[in-house]
Design brief:
single chain; alpha/beta; Glutaredoxin; two-stranded antiparallel ribbon; 49% helix; 17% strand; globular
């Protein structure tokens, strides 16, 4: 084989390898991953949802998750699943402005409980979600509130992980422990499984989205409904109303 033919064959092999690589990158990208600094990480296949109050039909496949943390009485008759990203501004609006009122009227009274279903829309939100899961159960939702309050700070920073670790330090987590939490592959897999289930079984594509479930049914809201619609739906599934 001549030198010219060898070069031609190598070029053909490289072209084929490049095509396979591009196909692989495309597949990973639509699944929510990308290469950053030599690491395969989650990026943003979903977009932050705009506030809406239109209900969506719930998919036939029933969404289920084993909640790591629950806000309220675990035996409450109504469950609010909040599909949320810590980097989403509308999610922050819900936590800082609407949740306190919902908590007072429905959660603290034992009528409903809230389950936070991680649905990160970018790599920074993923790191924040992973870190939050290292919090003790009694500090988890307070830490989420802190992350939402500081959202612009860590979300726009070039030193996001350092800032996140600093917030965790105020709750007693060492920098080493915080770093380990943000690199825990098992936790990342759990979060991705919840996210994937939400997409496949409920058709969720943006944050926040809410699934309100009672013994007799469930309603799905894409985006952030107004308080009246939220309250109306929760009341609909309370046993005393049947």
């Amino acid at each position: 084989m001549t030198f010219e033919n060898i070069i031609k064959r190598i070029s053909q092999l490289l072209a084929v390898a490049f095509m396979f690589l591009m196909a692989d990158v495309f597949y990973l990208s639509i699944k929510g991953f990308d290469w950053v600094d030599g690491n395969l990480i989650l990026v943003a296949p979903a977009e932050a949802a705009v506030p809406v109050s239109t209900e969506m039909p719930v998919a036939a496949a029933r969404f289920e998750m084993e909640p790591a943390f629950v806000l309220g009485n675990a035996e409450a008759p109504v469950t609010i699943y909040e599909f949320s990203s810590l980097g989403c501004s509308h999610c922050s609006d819900f936590h800082l402005n609407m949740l306190p009122e919902l908590k007072k009227e429905f959660i603290d009274t034992g009528k409903a409980k809230l389950v936070f279903a991680d649905f990160p829309i970018d790599a920074k939100s993923m790191k924040a979600a992973m870190l939050a899961r290292c919090m003790p159960a009694d500090k988890y939702f307070d830490f989420l509130g802190l992350l939402f309050k500081k959202q612009l700070n860590w979300g726009l920073s070039f030193k996001t992980e350092k800032l996140l670790a600093g917030y965790a330090a105020t709750e007693g987590l060492t920098e080493e422990k915080a770093k380990a939490c943000m690199e825990d592959d098992a936790v990342a897999a759990e979060i991705m499984a919840i996210r994937q289930d939400g997409m496949e079984k409920l058709g969720i594509r943006g944050t926040p989205s809410f699934l309100i479930r009672g013994a007799d049914g469930e309603d799905l809201f894409p985006g952030l409904p107004d308080y009246e619609r939220f309250a109306e739906t929760i009341n609909k599934y309370l046993p005393v109303n049947k």
